[in-house]
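TL;DR need C-alpha cells for one chain.
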Amino acid sequence: MDNSGIYVGLDIGTTSIKVIVAERVKGQMNVIGVGSERSNGLSRGVIVDIDKAASAIQSAVRQAEEKASIEIKKVIAGVPANLVKIERCRGMIAVADESKEINNEDVQNVAAAALVQSLPPEREVLDVIPDEFVVDGFDGIKDPRGMVGVRLEMHGTLFTGPKTIIHNTRKAIEKAGLQIEQIVIAPLALSSLVLNDGEQDFGSIIIDMGGGQTTAAVIHDHQLKYTYVDQEGGQYITKDISVVLNTSIENAEKLKRDYGYADAQQAADDEEFPVDVVGQSTPTQISEQYLAEIIEARLDQVFGKVKQHLDEIRALELPGGIVLTGGVAAIPGVTELASQLFGTRVRVFTPNQMGLRHPSFDEALAVIKYQAALSEVALLVKSALTGDTRASVAHDFSEVVDPIASAPRTSTEKTTQTTKQQPEQKQDNPDRKGALDHIKGFFNHFFD
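>> reply
TL;DR here they are.
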C-alpha cells in the first residue's frame, strides 16, 4: 500500500485561515506550500457570513498554490468541537458473498448499518470511527476483510454536530471553488499530531487556545472522550488591552504580540514601551508588567472555567498532563501560568517544520497527518457517510492497535471490565498498572 501524494489541510479559524500543502513520499511528509489570511465572516470559530469566509479561504488557498506551484482542488477541513456529541454506535449484517469471505463492500455495509439511528433534525453525523469488528461472535478484530463468517458486526464511536455549523463550513469551502476530501473534528486531528503514543494511551488533555474560543479535549485509550468549548479566546485578551489602555484594537493586538506575557511574574516592571492612546497627541509609557497583568487576568478566567469542567470528570488526574496549542499558546509565560492553575504538567506544542514554527499552524498540519494515517478499514467506514463506494484506500500507515482497545469483549459497554483485566495482560509493567488504577474513576465516568 502507498499513501504518497499531495495533502492540503485547511484550518478556518476565527482570526486567521491557514492552508498547508504537504507532499508525502515514502513515509515522509514534506510541507511545500503555506497560505495564511486574516479571517472574515467568522465569530467564535463559527462561519456566520458564508460569502466573506469563502473569499478569505480563496485568498489563503491562492497563497499556498503560488508557493507550492500546484492547483488546489480538494482540501481536508478541520471543524471546531462546538456542541460535538460523542456516542456509541453498533451495526450488524449478514455477509453477502456466497463464499462468506468478508470484503470491502461488507465493511461499508456494516458501517452504514451502524449509522442507522434517529438523530434530531438539527444534528448531523460528523465522523464515525470503528473501534472493533466482531465476526460470528469473535471480537477484538481490527480488519475483518479476508476472514470467513456469516455475521459481521461493527462497534464504533459516532461524532455528531450542529447541522448549521457543518453546512456553513461545507458551503463556504464549495463557494471558494474547492471540494472537501474529508471533514475532521479538530481535537481528534490534533491528538495525532501533538501527543505521542503513550500520551494518547494513558490519557492527556489538549487545550486549543484559538482567537475566538478555547477548546479542551480529553484523549484516552487513543480515543476522543470529552470536549468543552469556552467562548473566549485571544480576541478577548486583545479587547481587554484595548479597553484598559484606551487604544485601538490594532494597537492592542500588536502590543499583545510584541510585549505580552501570560505570567506577570515574568514581566519586567522597569521595561516600558509607548502606547498610542485615543484622544492624546503623545504616546503613554506602559510597563511590561502592567500589560502582563491585563493578559493574565483574562487567562485566569478562561483557565478557571476550563479547570472547573475538567475537575468534574477528574480528567486532570490523567498522567499525560496538558498540551497547549493554538495562537494564544505562543504568548510567553503561558506554560508556567497554566501549570500553576491546573496543578499538572503543561507543555506547548510547536511544529518543527520550516516556516510553521508557531502553535497557530497546529490544526492545519494536524488534519493532514490525521488523513494520511487513516487505515484502509477506517477509510471504508468513513465512505459510508457519503455513500462513495469508490473511496480511496491507498495508505501505507499501519493502524495503531492499542492493547486495551483490542482486548476481547462482547460489547462496547464492557470497557470498564476490559480496564480491570488490563493488569493481567500487562503483568510486566507495574507502572502502567498503577496509572490505570489511578484513573479508573475517570474511565468509569464515561462508560458506566
